[in-house]
Write a structure and sequence with these properties.
The chain has 378 residues and is of the alpha/beta class. It folds into two domains: 3-185 and 359-372, Rossmann fold (3-Layer(aba) Sandwich), CATH 3.40.50; 195-348, Glycogen Phosphorylase B (Rossmann fold). Helix content is 43%, strand content 17%. It contains 16 helices and 15 strands. It has helices spanning 12-26, 48-53, 70-88, 100-110, 145-156, 166-173, 187-200, 204-207, 223-226, 229-243, 254-262, 280-289, 299-307, 322-325, 336-348, 363-372; strands at residues 3-9, 31-37, 61-62, 92-96, 118-120, 123-125, 129-135, 159-162, 181-183, 216-219, 248-251, 272-275, 292-295, 311-313, 329-331. The strands form three sheets. It has a seven-stranded parallel sheet with strand order 3-2-1-4-7-8-9, with helices on both faces. It is globular and about 65 Å long. The structure holds uridine-diphosphate-N-acetylglucosamine. Residues 11-13, 40-43, 46, 67, 99-100, 145-146, 221, 253-255 line the site of uridine-diphosphate-N-acetylglucosamine.
Length: 378
Amino acid sequence: MRVKVLCVAGARPNFMKIAPILRAFAANPLFEARLVHTGQHYDDALSKVFFDELKIPRADVNLGIGSGSHAQQTAEIMQSFEPVLAAEQPHVLLVVGDVNSTIACTLVAAKFRLNEAFQTVDGPRDRPLLVHVEAGLRSFDREMPEEINRLLTDSICELLYVSDPAGIDNLKNEGVADKRVAFVGNVMIDTLLAAKERAMQSDILEQNALEEKGFGLVTMHRPSNVDDPETLKDLLGTLDKISHELPLVFPLHPRTKARMEAANITLDESRWKVIPPIGYLDFMKLIATAKVVLTDSGGIQEETTVLGVPCVTMRENTERPVTVDEGTNFLAGIGREKILEGFKYAMTTPPEGRIPRFWDGKSAERIADHIAEQFPKQ
Ligand code: UD1
């Protein structure tokens, strides 16, 4: 029997996670992997460029969902995904990360019965085996849509692959049996390590007349930071203060762009380089050559840790504590004083930190090997 795995990706942060997983499945003849793109992100700059640069095979199925409220988006993905499951009849459903596509597809598959049962080492079953990659992350902030997605996805998935050691404790505390959990490291770092050399060839610095370690890199898109005009103004005001000391480069997420336009906020072009969202290789080059990164992203906290670049995280919490405990991340919150303190520290102190265990480029292989163990030897 070949094990058919249906993999799901929907939004920008999913693409760099699914790339090495698809490669690991392709390298093992036991598996036949298929890819579903939900279409949650559809702009070339948020989707196609990642497929091209990371050599992700074209999706076998594209649901073409697009934007909407959380309920609309989640519901539409669910409705469109059910017939795909019926047509594909996968033995395994694999989801990554914490976006709406992640929970939507998991929830459908959790109640889905296949036409034919198949054997696993735990006996026969007639539902796809549900696998979550990047399981166990918790910000303990239920105001965050991703936290809800993470909690629900982990509670119904059966194999939980953990990237941050804190995830093991979080899942234990939620009563998840040890047998369901495996610490495999970080698939996003598989992608980073595989692409690093190519990324360093990027000419993004020349294109923008930037000098190595002569600029700060800003990203901001989290609804809690950008949706309320006052919070957005405050945060950009703090960053503007920083821009007097260090020019800032700011690739603008569409959500943030829309909110800035609505609130009539502009940034002084002599100190800010506001650019459209950029591809993976250019972005990794920007991180690696920035003096400091100021962000509210999840994944960037991990990428700065691996690239040894100071990161000031403009959030009150992080679901990725290993980046603070072992890496280069400073959790600043959104208050002016703490952000300025983090910035000053980054400017004056050489970055210190080590690379967390198993963030070594082999996480996807560990996942494929572990999934293979769930099936009887042939
Ligand atoms: C989503 C994820 C978030 C992730 C982020 C990365 C959820 C709940 N959130 O948030 O975890 O960090 O992706 O970007 O899944 N838009 C475009 N083009 C696109 C897609 C979106 O212009 O291709 C615009 C639309 O106006 C849309 C807005 O961006 O309404 C937000 O997109 P959405 O997918 O709802 O959430 P993100 O904020 O991107």
